[in-house]
Each structure stands twice: as structure tokens, then as C-alpha cells.
Automatic annotation (TrEMBL), chain A:
Gene3D superfamilies xrefs: TolB, C-terminal domain (2.120.10.30)
Species per Swiss-Prot/TrEMBL record: Streptomyces formicae
Highest taxon, organism lineage: Bacteria
Region annotated Disordered, chain positions: 83-109, 326-360
Protein name: TolB
TrEMBL record, chain B:
Organism of derivation: Streptomyces formicae
Classification via InterPro entries: MFS, MFS_dom, MFS_trans_sf
Protein name, UniProt field: Permeases of the major facilitator superfamily
Keywords: Membrane, Transmembrane, Transmembrane helix
Chain residue ranges for the region called Disordered: 1-24
TM regions (residue ranges): 113-131, 168-186, 192-211, 245-266, 272-294, 306-325, 331-354, 375-392, 398-416
Length: 360, 423
């Protein structure tokens, strides 16, 4: 009994070393707990922010607005502006804001790599890091709420919605194929939102070139654009180093090549003309120029835009085209527009934006 | 018991080599080494988290080209070599190893906040990257010097093995943590930076709390380096044994083509999706992790010269495997295994090899000179291999690398002093 008091004190007394070691362990443990708390709290905050950005949008699809992916305010998310006056008048709205278009930008849409919308349907292509990275095509309703999500592989490239909002199409650069070089590989999908029928890769569509059925392992489709009947469509096919404009038919499930050197076609709202990028120079330096092809006469003319445009142009109305170009002054991309008849001058439409889509 | 046996050893007491005493020592590693290992583990989680996501962050989030990133990265790695010498020299002046190493750890940790604050500004990101690399350069030599100063001479290989195993554990956990975070937060890179900063800061705190600033020295040399200043780092080159080790390391380094090229060659041969590319270094690191301690113990028993040469022979085996008509899994596993063996048998072992020939008061400078020499030689080798690949194609370039490494191995076998093992 009398010897007991010395026993518990045995570990600590002789030097300050062990005790200070214990103090140091406690101090580091407390610091670790605090740091862990900070890390967990920040991660939870970030994941909540990300989820709200993924699904929720602070606005819906309304007529008379130009939607785009912002790279400035609310970077990576969809934003919108009141549409240019011409389109607004056409849509019958009475918006009279020619002033301070820059300030009228509304941010806080869904986060997308590429975006397009028409009528009551939005199409948002997303990409998630990870091993391996994943991509998604997200179908959005008129409130820009998620309706359907399709998992994909590759890097989002082109997105289109038919004028009625029924037919959707998108193109992904395939990863693993050597897309970084001059040759690359694409997967183009078509989704019928009314039936829910999804064609994940349209490469198997029977193709006719110069009147004959064409077979080749290297056919790549991209940049589909649908006509008003939601059946006829146009697209680019590339094979053996050439690109063709093809006209496709959903019901017959067939495609016919119409002419060469047409990429990323975009059908005008009145369905009479196709805007496209034409390769005007070999190699990687400024290869493309925007053209418009008249489908009745099959005559083409260049637009006033003289810079190389690597985008599927979007019709703001029957007389105006919009497209993304590398940004100036450190911005990643800007949206420009130019008259569709080749007259006039290109004008800067949106600073820090891409994926233009006018909802009429 | 432990202290007594190492003390006896430090005085060269032959009784210290008695088998039962070795048995006891084998089971344990000095406290400061474990503490430094834990610091490295936590710090490596921090730094590898960022390293793993930076290319994705640059290319996908900021829209820079991979080429720009590669250029920035290579530039800063070059700068590291010079900073390392300064760090080693500063550490030796007055024996401030812990202070200099701690400064390096702190700078790297703070660079995460720089990444966070930079947003998308390229200049800010460049500055944060530079701060990280300077921190890494500054801390490495003082840290290795601390390990060597805290360990008995005949257990150096094991001490470095334990440290490298813990270090590599962090390097393995880091990318996994980063990708888990990106997955959980849907690409919130800022969360990766914040968590990385927390790990980095924890590493600094652990260093401050658990690593003694003046370790108990086991070298038999005067314990306090303050008496005489370290002099110029280049004075080291007057020590013949050091010169020979530096020569051998540089020679072998100049025949080492770099991991990135090996992974690229594997990808070409096996033709798997680019998205699996980040997993390759993890495979090699896992082997390194498993073999670091056994290789260190083997080095203590056989002399460090043999594992160091054998490790490079394993690398040569990897080159040959890539040249030979091996296919599929055997090729993948074989190359990653041999690369892991190479690191396990050479990285820490080289530090153990050089320790006995550098006086304690020059230890950090000596290690810095050696590491810098090796790094510069490897830089030259990578550039040379890249040029050969472009000019002549893959197979001739790889054949050249095989011939060069074989010649370097022969040269190093002649150069490396045999007397390194303490009798």
C-alpha cells in the first residue's frame, strides 16, 4: 500500500523528455484533428457546390435569349444574355435593351463543356476527371433540370438539338485513339427524346458515296444537324483523308454523300442553307474558313469572317451566324457573329464564352 | 540496450558485430528516422496529390496545352538542381539541417495556397509551382543528411530503406486521395489544393515536434560541427572516395532514360487507353515500396556497392524486355517490377553508400552535390534519348540505351570503392 504511489509515477519522473514527448504528441494530434476538420469541411462544401452546379440552374430555357458556356463569370457554367434585337423581334418579344448588353449576362446555369438548346430541350456535355475520365451527355428540360444522363467515353466536341427539341446529337473525340495528331477518331450519337431510342455510335449507318454503297473501317461522323421534320439530317463524314457533307434519313437509316470538303454543317432555321467550315489550307495553321451552302443551287459563298473557325456555327436567326474563336486579352474563347450572306463585318458578341445557342 | 549497442558500434567495438546484437538492431530504426519517414509520408501525400492532378487541371480546366505544362515543369525541375546545392550548404553551416529542411517543407505546403489563390492566372500558377519545386529542392539533402546522422553506420541501408518505403507509401496514397476527391466533389480542384495544404502543414508540424535538431551522431566524429565551418562544397571533390561515387552515379545517371519514356514505350507496345497512363507509376512505386527495406538490409549486409550495381542491372533488364518480343501482361509486369527493383536498390542505397565518405559537418552538402550530379546526368540522358528516338526511331534508340547502360555499369563497377563497408 505504501509502495503504491511510486509505481504510477515511474514512467514520467526522471527527465522532462517523455513528458514533453507526450505533450508534443498531443499538440500534433490536436493540430492533425483541426487540419482534418478543415479538409473535410472544405471537401463537403466543394461537393455540395459541385452538385448544385451539376443539376440546378438559376434560370430555364426562355425564348429570346442567347445561351452560351461562360468562361468568365461563373466559369464552366451556362450563362445567357437577352438575344440580339433581330432575333428578339422575330420571336415576338418586346425587349428593347440595346444598352449594356454586357451587364445583362445571367450566370448560374448547369456546368457543361459544351451546350446547345432549342425549344424546350437542352443538351449539356460534361466531363469528369478520374481514372479513367468519364463524360456524360445530360438531357435537360425547359427548366434546365436533368431529365436523362448518358455515360460516354471521350472528350466532348459537338452538341446539337433539333428545332423542335426532339432530336439530339453529340460528338465525342475518342480517347485512346491518337486524337492529338492530325488523325483522330470520333463517336457521334443520336438520341430521339420522344421514343428514348439512342444510337450510341452512328458509324454503322449505310453510306452511299458517288452512287455506290461505301464500306471502309475508317469512317468517322461528326457535327450532325437536324431539319424541321426531325427525320432528315446533315453531318460530316471523314474517310481516307477526305471529308464529305452527307444527308441522312432517320426512318430509312441511310446516308448519302453530297459533296466534299464540308465540316460541321449547321442548317439554317428556314432549312434552305447550311453553314459549315471548309478546309482552305493543309496542315494545322488556320485551316478552316466559314462558308454557307445554298441547298437549292448547291452554290457556296464565304463569310466575312476571315479567321480560322474551328466550331460548328450556330444560327442566331436566318441572317446571322455565331461561333467561338480563341479569346483575346487572355480569355479562353469569345463568341463572334457575322451576317450569313457574306456581307458586313464580324462583331464580338460575348466576351469569354463558347457554345452559342439562340433559343427562338 | 539499443543505445548501448549503437554507442559501442560507433567506437568500432568488434563486440557490436555479435550476431545477437545485430538481431536486436535489425528490428529497429532510430526514432528520428521514423519521424522523418512519417514527415515524408504525409508530405508526399500532399505533393503527389497535386502532381497527379496538375496536368488534368492545366489541360482540362485552364485550357493550357500539354506542351506549355511540360515546358514549365521541365524548367522548374532544372532549377531544383541548383537550389538543392544551396539547401545542402545552408544546412551544413551551423548544423541547421532541421531548420533548412523545415523551411523547404513549409514553402511547398504554402505553395498549395498559392495555387488556390492564383485561380486561373498562369503567372500565379507558375510562381506557386516554382515555390513548390524550390521547397523540394531545399529540403531533400538536409533530410537525407539527418537520416544518415541519426543512424549507426552499419544500418544506414536499412534506415534509408525504411524512410524510402514510408515516403513511397505517401506517394502511392497521394494520387488515390486526389482522384477520390475529384470524384467526390465533381472536379473541385480547389478542394484538392486545400486538402494537400492541410497534409503539407501537418508534415511541417510533425517535423517540428518529433525530429531533433541535433541528432545523436553515430559516426565517431566530433558531434558539433560548429567548431569549424563547412568550407566550400567543392572541397568535397578532393575526397577521392566521394569523387569516385559521384563519378559512378553520374555515369549511370547519364545512361538512365527516364521513367516517362519507359511508360510511353509501354503504352505504345501494349496500346492501352491513355486514361490508364497515370496508373503505371503506381505499379512501379508499389514494387519500390515492398522492396525498399529488404534492399536496404541487403545493402547493409553485402556492402552497398552490390545492390546499387544490381539495381541498375535490373533497369537494363527492363530496357531489354522492351526490346525483346515480349507481349501483354508479362511485358507490363516485368518492366514495372524491374523499375521498382531499380529504385529500391539504388535510391536510398546511394545515400547510404556515400555517407561514410563524407564528414558529418559536410553531410548535407555532399548529398546535395551527389543528388545534383545524378539529376543533371539524368536530364542529359533524357534529352539524348528523346533526340535519338526522334532521329532514329524507337528500337535503335533503345539499343543505344542498352549499350550505354552496359558500359556505364562496367565503368561504375570499376569506379565504386570496395572499401566502403566498415570492417
Amino acid at each position: 500500500m505504501t509502495s503504491l504511489p511510486s509505481a504510477p509515477s515511474a514512467p514520467s519522473p526522471p527527465s522532462a523528455g517523455p513528458r514533453s514527448l507526450r505533450a508534443r504528441i498531443v499538440a500534433v494530434a490536436v493540430a492533425a484533428a483541426v487540419l482534418a476538420g478543415v479538409a473535410v469541411a472544405y471537401t463537403l462544401h466543394a461537393s455540395q457546390r459541385a452538385q448544385s452546379a451539376d443539376t440546378a440552374s438559376e434560370f430555364g430555357l426562355d425564348q429570346g435569349h442567347l445561351y452560351f458556356r461562360s468562361t468568365e463569370a461563373g466559369a464552366g457554367r451556362v450563362a445567357r444574355l437577352p438575344a440580339p434585337d433581330g432575333a428578339a423581334r422575330k420571336a415576338g418579344t418586346t425587349r428593347a435593351s440595346t444598352t449594356s448588353r454586357k451587364d445583362a449576362r445571367t450566370t448560374g446555369g448547369p456546368s457543361c463543356e459544351r451546350f446547345y438548346a432549342a425549344a424546350g430541350t437542352g443538351l449539356c456535355l460534361q466531363r469528369r476527371a478520374g481514372i479513367p475520365p468519364k463524360s456524360y451527355a445530360v438531357v435537360l428540360d425547359e427548366h434546365l433540370r436533368e431529365k436523362r444522363r448518358i455515360a460516354l467515353t471521350g472528350i466532348p466536341n459537338r452538341a446539337r438539338v433539333s428545332a423542335s427539341g426532339r432530336m439530339l446529337s453529340w460528338t465525342m473525340f475518342a480517347t485512346g485513339d491518337s486524337y492529338a495528331g492530325s488523325s483522330f477518331s470520333t463517336r457521334t450519337s443520336i438520341l430521339d427524346t420522344r421514343t428514348g431510342y439512342l444510337i450510341k455510335n452512328m458509324e454503322e449507318i449505310p453510306l452511299t458515296v458517288e452512287g455506290r454503297r461505301y464500306h471502309a473501317p475508317d469512317v468517322n461522323y461528326w457535327g450532325v444537324t437536324f431539319a424541321d421534320d426531325d427525320n432528315r439530317f446533315y453531318a460530316t463524314v471523314s474517310t481516307k483523308g477526305k471529308t464529305y457533307l452527307v444527308r441522312g434519313d432517320m426512318k430509312k437509316w441511310a446516308a448519302t454523300a453530297l459533296r466534299t470538303n464540308v465540316e460541321c454543317p449547321s442548317l439554317s432555321p428556314d432549312n434552305t442553307r447550311i453553314a459549315f467550315k471548309k478546309r482552305v489550307r493543309e496542315g494545322t495553321r488556320d485551316p478552316w474558313r466559314l462558308y454557307v451552302l445554298d441547298l437549292h443551287t448547291m452554290r457556296e459563298h464565304p463569310l466575312a469572317e476571315r479567321r480560322s473557325v474551328d466550331d460548328q456555327a450556330a444560327w442566331l436567326d436566318d441572317g446571322t451566324l455565331a461561333y467561338a474563336l480563341p479569346g483575346e486579352g487572355g480569355r479562353k474563347q469569345d463568341i463572334w457573329s457575322t451576317p450569313a450572306d457574306g456581307s458586313g463585318e464580324p462583331t464580338l458578341r460575348v466576351r469569354g464564352g463558347s457554345s452559342p445557342a439562340a433559343v427562338r | 540496450m539499443y543505445l548501448a549497442s549503437t554507442g559501442a558500434l560507433a567506437q568500432g567495438d568488434p563486440a557490436a558485430k555479435a550476431p545477437e546484437q545485430s538481431e536486436v538492431r535489425r528490428g529497429r530504426v532510430a526514432g528520428p528516422v521514423l519521424a522523418l519517414g512519417a514527415v515524408s509520408l504525409v508530405t508526399d501525400i500532399s505533393s503527389e496529390m497535386v502532381t497527379a492532378v496538375l496536368p488534368l487541371y492545366f489541360v482540362l480546366q485552364l485550357g493550357l496545352s500539354p506542351l506549355q505544362f511540360g515546358f514549365l515543369d521541365g524548367l522548374y525541375n532544372g532549377v531544383t538542381a541548383l537550389v538543392r546545392l544551396a539547401g545542402g550548404y545552408a544546412a551544413d553551416r551551423g548544423g541547421r539541417h532541421k531548420l533548412v529542411a523545415g523551411g523547404g517543407y513549409a514553402l511547398s505546403a504554402l505553395s498549395r495556397l498559392g495555387l488556390l489563390l492564383a485561380g486561373g492566372a498562369t503567372a500565379g500558377i507558375g510562381a506557386a509551382l516554382a515555390a513548390d519545386r524550390v521547397g523540394k529542392g531545399v529540403r531533400t539533402a538536409p533530410r537525407d543528411a539527418l537520416i544518415s546522422l541519426s543512424s549507426p553506420p552499419d544500418a544506414l541501408g536499412r534506415a534509408f530503406g525504411v524512410h524510402r518505403a514510408m515516403d513511397t507509401t505517401g506517394a502511392l496514397l497521394g494520387p488515390l486521395a486526389a482522384f477520390a476527391l475529384l470524384w467526390a466533389t465533381a472536379d473541385a480542384y480547389d478542394a484538392v489544393f486545400v486538402v494537400s495544404f492541410c497534409f503539407g502543414l501537418l508534415g511541417v508540424l510533425m517535423l517540428m515536434a518529433f525530429v531533433p535538431s541535433r541528432p545523436h551522431q553515430h559516426t565517431g566524429a566530433p558531434a558539433r560541427p560548429v567548431a569549424k565551418p563547412p568550407g566550400k562544397a567543392l572541397d568535397l571533390l578532393r575526397v577521392p572516395a566521394f569523387r569516385r561515387i559521384l563519378g559512378a552515379a553520374a555515369l549511370l545517371g547519364a545512361a538512365t532514360i527516364g521513367d516517362a519514356f519507359l511508360y510511353l514505350l509501354l503504352q505504345r507496345r501494349l496500346d492501352f487507353a491513355i486514361s490508364w497512363f497515370p496508373l503505371l507509376p503506381l505499379g512501379a512505386a508499389a514494387v519500390y515500396l515492398l522492396l525498399a527495406i529488404p534492399a536496404g538490409r541487403l545493402a547493409d549486409r553485402t556492402g552497398r556497392r552490390v545492390p546499387f550495381l544490381a539495381g541498375h542491372a535490373a533497369l537494363l533488364g527492363g530496357y531489354v524486355l522492351l526490346l525483346a518480343p515480349t507481349e501483354g501482361w508479362p511485358l507490363l509486369i516485368g518492366v514495372l517490377l524491374l523499375l521498382g527493383v531499380f529504385y529500391a536498390a539504388t535510391d536510398g542505397v546511394l545515400m547510404a553508400l556515400v555517407t561514410p565518405v563524407v564528414a558529418p559537418e559536410r553531410r548535407a552538402s555532399g548529398m546535395a552535390v551527389l543528388q545534383t550530379g545524378q539529376a543533371i546526368a539524368r536530364l542529359v540522358a533524357a534529352a539524348g534519348f528523346g533526340a535519338a528516338w526522334t532521329l532514329w526511331g524507337v528500337a535503335p534508340a533503345l539499343t543505344c540505351a542498352c549499350v550505354a547502360l552496359t558500359a556505364a555499369l562496367a565503368g561504375a563497377a570499376v569506379l565504386l570503392p570496395r572499401t566502403e563497408r566498415q570492417a
